[in-house]
Amino acid sequence: MNHRFTKLWASHAVSNLGSAAAMVALPLFVLQYFDGDTLEVGLLIAAQQAAWILIGLPAGAWVDRLKQRQLMLFCDWARAVLLAALPAIALLELSIAYAIGVAFLIGVCTVFFTIAYQAMLPHEVRQQDLPAANRRLTYTQTGAQVVGQGCAGLLAQFMGPGGVLLFNAACFLASGVLILLISPRPVDAAPAGSRRAILKEIGEGLRYVWRDARVRALSLVSANVNFFGAMQQAVLVVFLIQEADLTEGVAGALLGAAGIGGMCGAALGHRVNTRLGAGEGTIAVMVVGSVLGLLVPLTSNGVGVVLFLVGYVALWSMVITFTAVSISYRQAVCPERLLGRVTATARFLTWGVLPLGSAIGGALGSLLGERAVLWITAVGFIGCPVWLFVSKARRLPELDAVLHQRQRQDAEHAD
Asked: What is the rounded CA–CA span in Å between residue 150 and residue 20?
């Protein structure tokens, strides 16, 4: 790994640290400052995720046209300003609609940042290093959630949710500074002569994802994981505090500890993938993870906390292992000129379901209770390895073989 990737990796880590803190702070912010309920928490989270549906596809074409480094810098600093504005909205006693609007703008910045950094990554590392780079980024994201969610719970007790949001804003500012330290590359933007009508460019990305059976299957399975994950996240913090009767600090510590376990489980999942192959190994990890995930709805104060840790750790291990394999395979097989659009298309399919899941989770939480929603999501996760098993992704070629083939093709093209 080179120094350019190290700076990108550090920026990714700090950015995710702030995002993880916001996962705890935003629900608490709505509950405390707006006297909200589970439905309003779900709507706020859904607003932040709705950008993937509304602009996810054209964002990929724009990322292929723009300078990715400058775009990421703008998105980080814009999110810092927007997050700092949320406590001001509460102090001015404005309605929750303003907070939902700010959450949507934060989501727009997140869409562009995520697509840009994934399109930028293959330029910063060698082809054969892509799986290792994606594993490091995925583990870092989980580690950031460990620290971010744990700190958020503790900070919320002493500073309130508004203080945690300011901490989140500071993380985005720091991430932007790290991106600023990465020197620009001429490949950061597509040549002006190669630009065509944006609808045609969007169509190219859609056709590529749909025609490649394995990329399509991985995207659909990821959409299934994210839909039920969004439903779970919409009620989880409220469930731990109000129904399981835990304090904010204990809830944050539990979520953080589960993240640590998820990292360890993902490392074990990588060993399983090495032994069984990317397809069969990932299916095995997902079967174990989804079955143990049935323990999450059994959480209660006292000994029941252990059930939450085991089930949530297993789910984290499943998600991390699958995500690293899916992203690495897509980056390895996709032509570089299409990477932004293909990433955007895959994200549109996989993250476009997030606002729907959050809204449904919040609505069902108000009607049926948070524990009932957690049972629905636990059963839904079991379907994820089933989808993967019946798809062509079950026979996913070894990533090393794909990368070596790509290198040979690049060498032949250079000759």
From this structure: 9
Instruction: Enter the tokens of residue 105.
Output: 């703008």
Within the chain, what is the greatest distance between any pair of CA atoms?
66
Burial class (CB in 10 A: 0-12, 13-18, 19+), 408: exposed
The pLDDT value recorded for residue 259 is: 67
SS3 string, 17-44, reads HHHHHHHHHHHHHHHHHCCCCHHHHHHH
The conformation of residue 415, written as its DSSP 8-state character, comes to -
* The model's pTM: 0.67
- Compute the distance between CA of residue 300 and CA of residue 339 in angstroms, rounded to an integer: 45
Say how far apart CA 177 and CA 173 lie, in whole Å.
6
Angle, helices 304-333/96-124, rounded to nearest 10 degrees: 50
Residue holding tokens 């046209």?
Answer: 65
**Cα–Cα distance, 283 to 56 (Å, whole number):** 28
Dump pLDDT digits (tens) for 81-133: 988 888 887 777 777 788 888 888 988 898 888 888 877 887 777 766 776 77
Distance between CA atoms of 364 and 313, rounded to whole angstroms? 24
CA dist 165 and 393 (Å) reads 40
Give the orientation angle of helix 304-333 with respect to helix 339-351, to 10 degrees: 150
pLDDT in tens, 227-239: 998 899 888 888 8
Give SS3 for 183. Answer: coil
